[in-house]
Amino acid sequence: MAAGTSSNVHLHDIPDVILSNIFSLETETRTRNAMSLVCLKWLLLERSTRKSLTLRGNIRNLFHLPTCFRAVTHLDLSFLSPWGYPLLDSFSNPLVLAQFLRHAFPSVVSLIVYVRNPLTLHLLASQWPNLQHVKLVRWHQLWPAAPVGSDLVPLFDHCPMLSSLDVSHFYCWTEDLPPVIQAYPSIATSLSHLNILKHDSSTDGFKSHQLLSITACCPNLRKLLATCIFNPRFIGFISDQTLLTLALNCPLLSLLHLADSTSMSNVRPNLIEDASISFATLGDVFSKLPLLEELVLDVCHNVKHTWPALELLNTKCPMLKSLRLGQFQGICRGIASPPDGVALCQGLESLSIKNCTDLTDKALIAISHGCHRLSKFEILGCNQLTRKGMWEFTHNLRKTLVDVKISYCKNLNAVSSLQALEPIRDRIVKLHIDCVWASIIGEEKSLKNWSKLKYLSLWIAVGELLNPLSLSGLNDCPSLEEIQIKIQGDCRDQPKPFMDAFGLSSLTCYPNLTRMILDCSGVTGYALTAPVGHTDLSLWERFFLSGIQDSTLNELNYWTAQDVDVNQRCLFLPAAGLLARCGSLRKLFIHGTANEHLMMFLLGNPTLRDVQLREDYYPAPDNDTITEMRVGSCCRFEDALNSSSRHVPD
C-alpha cells in the first residue's frame, strides 16, 4: 500500500463510473458471471453493463427468460431449443412471444436468429426497427413454393436502419438476394457490410450479373464477402470485366473476399484450367480500391504471372494488412536481390498462400525479408517448399510470427513441419499441421517445450492413428487449451481398424486442454448394415472416440461421420456410451442427428449441463423418422437434463 493512503480504503469506494468502465472492459462470459457473484451491487452492475448475450435453453420455458439485461445491444437467438425449428411456433400467439422478447431486450441493434420460415422475421423485425446488424441462420431447405426473396422482405420492410447483413449460414438461392436489394434502394445505399459467402460447397456461387447487380445498388459497402463462380466453363463466371466493374461500384471497400464455390469442398484443386483473370486487370482493380485492408481471392483456377499486379498492392493499397491468395501463380520470383511481387507488401500482417505450384524456397525466403511484420502465415498445397526453406522463413520472422498453418504440402509432413518451426517454438500461439507420419520412424526425438501454444489444429486421414503426435515433437505444451481434429477419408475403402482406439487418450499429456472440436464430417461410410468384408460407421465411431473418457475436456463439438448414399449423419451407440463416461464434460454439441434413447445415455454423465443437437449441414433433414429427435424428444431430453434430481457440480 502506498504511503499516505488510508488502510480503510475498500473496493466499494471506487466511484461507480470507474467501476462501470472496468466491468465494460471484461467480455468473457464466465468471468463476468463470476464477478456478478461477489455482491448485490456487482450483480446489478454486471447486468447493466452487459452488451452481448447468447440465449440458450428451450423457448417454451419463458419463465427462464432473463429480464435484467436491459442494456444488451447484441442478441443471439440462434441456439435456442428445439434447434432448427421455427422459433415462434411453440406458442399459439407468436406475436406475444416476440413482444416479450422486445420487452426483455429493448436496446437490441444487432440480432442473430434461426429463420426456418418468413414468419419469424416478420414478427421479430417489427419489434426492433432500429436493427443495424442482422445475421440469419438456416440449414434446412426452402419452404415449398416460397416466392423469390420472401425470407428477406420482412427484414427490409421493418428495419430501415439496416447497415450490415450476414447470410453466410442461411440456406437460400442466389436468386433471392438481388431483387430484394434492388427493391429497397435506400437500405441498399446504407449497407456497409454484406456477407454472402456460403460455407458449404453444395450451394452455388453468385453469377457475375448477380454480383454486379448487388454491388451497383450498394455503393457504400466497406466489407463484401461473396461466393462466386470463377470456372470459365460455367455461365456467369467472374471475368476481368466483372472485377473492374465491382471495383467501380464499391470504391470504399476495406474488405473484399471472393471465393469460388468449390473452395469449401474437400476436392483436390484443378491445377490445369486457367481462370479468365489477367494480371493486368488485377493491377487496375487494386488501383481502384485504395482503402483495402483485407483481400481474399480464392479462385480455384490458375491466375498466372501475378507478381507485377501484386507489386502494385504496396503502393495502390497502402493500408493492406491481410492477404489470402488461392491458386495465384508467380506471386514472387525470388531471383533478384531486391524483393518483388508479394514480397513488396511490407505492411502485411497476415498472409495465406494456397495451391501456388511454382512457389520455391527462395521465393518464400524473399517474402520473409519483404513482409517483415507477418504475425500469421498459412501455406497450403505448395509442393516445392521444403523444411529448409520453411525454417529460414520462420527464423527471419521469429520476432513477429505467432500463428502458422501448414497443410497439403508434399515435403512438409508432421515431423518436418515441426522442425521447420523450431525458431518460433517458444513464441507460437496457434498452429495447424497435417498428421502425416511417414518419416517419424527413425527421426531423433527429444523433449520439446511449446510454452505459449494455446490452439492446435490437426488434419488426419481416416485409418491413421493420433498416438504419434507426442513422438513427433509436440509432447510438451503446458498452455494448450483447445485442439481441433479434422478426420477425412472414405471408410468404405478401408479395412477394419487394426487398433482398438484412434488415440484420444494420448491427449492426456496436455494438462490444460479443456476444449475440443472433433470433426468427422469428412468421413464417409456405411450408416446401416455394411456389406460383407466392410465395417459400418458405428465401429469406426467407437474407434475414433475410444479414450475420450480419460480426457479432462470441459467442452466438445462433435461432427458425426456420414453416409452420403442415404444422407445420414447420426450418433451411434458406441459414441453415446463413451461420451457418457467423459467425467469432466460440461458442454456437448453434436452436429448431426440422433435417436432419443441414445441421447438419454448422456444423462449418465454427472457433469453435463449443456447439450444440444444441431443438424447444421446442407441440407438438414426435414422429415425425421419416428425414432429420431424431434420437438417432443428434444423437450423430454432437456427436461431430464435440467431435472432437479440431477446434481451438477459447478
Secondary structure topology:
Blueprint: H1 16-25, H2 29-36, H3 40-49, E1 52-54, E2 74-76, H4 94-104, E3 110-114, H5 118-125, E4 133-138, H6 153-158, E5 164-170, H7 177-183, H8 185-190, E6 193-196, H9 208-217, E7 223-228, H10 240-249, E8 255-260, H11 279-287, E9 294-303, H12 307-316, E10 322-328, E11 350-354, H13 361-370, E12 376-380, H14 387-396, E13 403-407, H15 414-420, E14 430-434, E15 455-461, H16 468-471, E16 482-490, E17 515-524, H17 537-545, E18 555-559, H18 573-580, E19 587-591, H19 596-599, E20 610-614, H20 631-641
Parallel strand pairs: 1-2, 2-3, 3-4, 4-5, 5-6, 6-7, 7-8, 8-9, 9-10, 10-11, 11-12, 12-13, 13-14, 14-15, 15-16, 16-17, 17-18, 18-19, 19-20
Helix pairs in contact: 2-3, 7-9, 9-10, 10-11, 11-12, 13-14, 14-15, 17-18
Q: Poorly predicted ranges (pLDDT <50, ≥5 residues)?
A: none
Structural class: alpha/beta
Helical fraction: 25-40%
Rg, rounded, reads 26 Å
Largest sheet descriptor: 20 strands, parallel
Strand residue percentage: 15-25%
CATH topology of the domain at 14-50: Monooxygenase
Shape verdict: globular
- CATH structural architecture of the domain at 14-50: Up-down Bundle
By DSSP (H or I, 4+ residues per run), the number of helices equals 20
